[in-house]
C-alpha cells in the first residue's frame, strides 16, 4: 500500500523506511498508513504526557499560591482571552487549514514552491499577530467587559483582570508562529518538537512562581510574575522549533513575497474553521462568561476541573487527531477515499478505546485526585469538593471531546468547512441555552453539564454528516468497539471503586499521602481493563500495545 511518501520530498526527513511496512499481523493496525499514524500518535502522546505532568505541577503551584479566590479568578479569566485566540488562530484553525494547503503544494508543486508558501505565510502571519497583540492590549477593558461581565461588580477584580490581560497579550504573537512551525514539521513527519512545545510554557510559569515568591510577599504582586512567565514561555516555545526547522531546511526568515496564491484557499477555509474547529474553546469561553456571574471561585472550579480533563484529552484524543491529520490530508490529495475511511475508522476506535476507561477512572477517583494535586495552601477542602463536582460533569463527555477532533480533521482534509461550521453554530447555541437553563439550579455544575451535553450533540451531528459525506465509515464496527470498550470500562470502574475503599486514606486532609493509594488504584484499573479487553479480543489493545512499545512488527 502506498503511504503518500512514494514521491520524494527533497530536504524533508521522510520516513522512507516506514513506507513499505505492513501490519497485517497486528490486529487493528493495517497497512503502512497505520504504522505512520501509530508511531506519530505514540510520539505525540508521550510528549504530551510529559507536558501534562509539568502542567499538573504548574497548576498545583497556582492552586497552592492563589487558591480559588479573586486573584485566581482574575488570572484565569485574563489568561483565557489570549489563550482562546491562540487555540483558535494558532494551534487549532491555522494547523487545520495550513496542513492541507501545504501538503497539496508539497506533493503537486514540489519543495521549492512549498518553501515559498511557508515563507509568505510566516511574514503575513507575523504582521497579523503583531497587530492583534497591540489591538488586544489597547482593547483589554472592552474585552474583559465582554468576556467576564460579572467582574464589573468589583472594581479591584476588573482592574486586575484588565492589567493581567494586557501583560499576557503578547503571548499570542509567539504562539501563533509556533503553530505555523508545528504544522510545517508535522507535514514533514516530525512530531516530537511540536508536541514538546507546551513544556516550555509550563517550565516558564513554574519558574516565574518559584522566583517571584522569593522577591514578593503578596499574591497580587506574584500574579504579575506569573503573567510575565506566560509571555516568556511563548518565546521559548518558538525558540524550541527553530533547530528542527533548520534540520528540515525550512528558513522562514528568508525574504519571501507577502502574498502566495495558496492564501486564497487558506483564507476561504479559515473563517468557517475558526468557528467549526474552535467549538470546544468557544463553548469554554461561553461557560467562563456565565460563570463570572456566579459566586466567587466558580471560574476557578471549572478551570481546575477542565485542566484535569485535558490530561487524558491531550494525551489520547488530540494526539490521535494531530497524528492523523497529515495522513488524511495526503490521502485526500491523492483521492484515496477508501484509505481515508479506514484511517478514520481506526483512529476513532482507538480514541474511544482509551478515553472511555479514562472517563470512568476520572469519575470514580475525581475527589482524591483533586485533593492530592491541589488541596494545600489557599486551596481548601471546599475548593476540592466543588472542583470535583464540576469534574464529574465534564468527565461524562471526555469521549466526545476526544473523538470530535478526529471527525473534524476528516472534513477539513476534504476541504469541507461549511458542514462543521453549521453544526458548530448549533452546538454553541445549545451550549448557551443549556448553560442559562442549568446555572440557576446547579450553579457551576450546571455549566459543566451544559458544556458536556453540547459536545455530545456536536459529535453526534458531525458523525451523521460524515456518513452522508463519505458513505460507509464502518459505523457498525465503531459502535461494536465502543460497546466493548464501555463494558471493559464499567468493569474496571467497579474494581477501582472497591480498591479505593481499601487503599485510600479517609482523612480529608491527606494530600500527598493519597499518592500511593491512587497509583495502586490506577494500576489495578489498567490491569483490569487490559484483561477484560483481552478476554473480549479487542484489536485496539494490540494497536495500543504497539504504540507503547513503538517497535516495528514483522511483515
Kindly describe this structure:
- 80% of the residues lie in helices and 0% in strands.
- It starts with 30 loop residues before the first helix and ends in a 6-residue tail after the last helix.
- The protein contains 19 helices and no strands.
- The chain is globular and about 65 Å long.
- The longest helix is centred in the N-terminal third of the chain and has 40 residues.
- Helix 1 runs parallel beside helix 7.
- With 555 residues, the chain is mostly helical.
Q: What is the gist of this entry?
A:
This protein has helices spanning 31-66, 70-109, 111-138, 140-147, 155-168, 171-187, 192-215, 219-247, 262-276, 279-291, 298-333, 337-374, 381-395, 398-413, 418-442, 444-470, 475-503, 515-535, 539-549.
Structural class: mainly alpha
Number of DSSP-assigned strands: 0
Number of helices: 19
Taking Cα atoms only, what radius of gyration do you get, to the nearest Å? 23 Å
Order of helices and strands: HHHHHHHHHHHHHHHHHHH
The major pleated sheet works out as: none
N/C terminus separation: 13 Å
Which runs of at least 5 residues are low in confidence (pLDDT < 50)?
1-31, 551-555
Q: What percentage of amino acids are in beta strands?
A: under 5%
Mean pLDDT: 81
Shape estimate: globular
Helix content: over 70%
The number of domains: 2
